[in-house]
Design a protein that fits this description.
- The protein starts with a strand and ends with a strand.
- The chain is α/β, with parallel strands linked by helices.
- It contains 7 helices and 10 strands.
- It is 37% helix and 24% strand.
- The longest helix has 24 residues, at 75-98.
- The chain folds into 2 domains: 2-138, 3-Layer(aba) Sandwich (Cobalt-precorrin-4 Transmethylase, domain 1); 143-248, Tetrapyrrole methylase, C-terminal domain (Methyltransferase, Cobalt-precorrin-4 Transmethylase, Domain 2, 2-Layer Sandwich), CATH 3.30.950.
- The protein has helices at residues 19-25, 41-54, 75-98, 118-128, 143-151, 167-173, 219-237; strands at residues 2-8, 30-35, 60-65, 104-108, 133-138, 162-166, 180-184, 199-205, 213-218, 242-248.
- α3 (75-98) crosses α4 (118-128).
- Pathway: Cofactor biosynthesis; adenosylcobalamin biosynthesis.
- This is Precorrin-6A synthase (Deacetylating).
- Keywords: Cobalamin biosynthesis, Methyltransferase, S-adenosyl-L-methionine, Transferase.
Length: 249
Amino acid sequence: MRELYVIGIGAGDPTQVTVQAIEAMRRVDVFFVIGKGDAKQELVAVRTAILDAHTDHPYRIVEIPDPPRERSVGDANYRGVVEDWHERRAALLEEAFAGTEGVGGILVWGDPSLYDSTLRMIGRVLERGALRFAHTVVPGITSAQALAARHRIVLHDIGEPVHITTGRRLRERGVAPGESTLVMLDGEASFTTVPGDDLHIWWGAYLGMPDETLIEGPLREVADPIVRRREELRAAKGWIMDIYLLRRR
């Protein structure tokens, strides 16, 4: 039976890669990367740099074009649109893996368990039954951990929960009293919509990468500077990858 490794590689810093991840990478013959277009080619380059830093054997990279996904959908259609997108991604992964030989690998930004679709894709491929393989998951350092480390904070208050969510859900739910809210996948600066003058924000972009940027302070004081900096970075690089923590004081 063939093997596939799903390897968490951290938030972008090659030194965040664990020994377990390095050992797994050294077993892989071909790595599959879902491309995000020319604007995000830097993400492929970072993965290649990580491989070059930690592997000592020949390997191949097979880039899979990411199928388009409808973005302007209402909440009622959101889940169905995402599941259709995952199905098309799974079909492309199945085709690519079936067309290669040797041990396969997928490098996952951060950790495969947190807002990443790779394991769902693999589950869909296995459910179809046309391609049989065993897969091993290797955990990685998440952007949530990297954010806390760079700001030198604990993600939750004493005896209180931390809520991990998306920008879309933050706009719907806001920040509950006594709860720290960690927000990922926010393309619309949703922190600007949250009411209250007692909120504090810890924000970071491109964590672990050369362009890493951090801003922290009372939300009402730093929201506009964060929005301006996000737009500057997006304009310069063509993409933005950020995360932030909100907490009521």
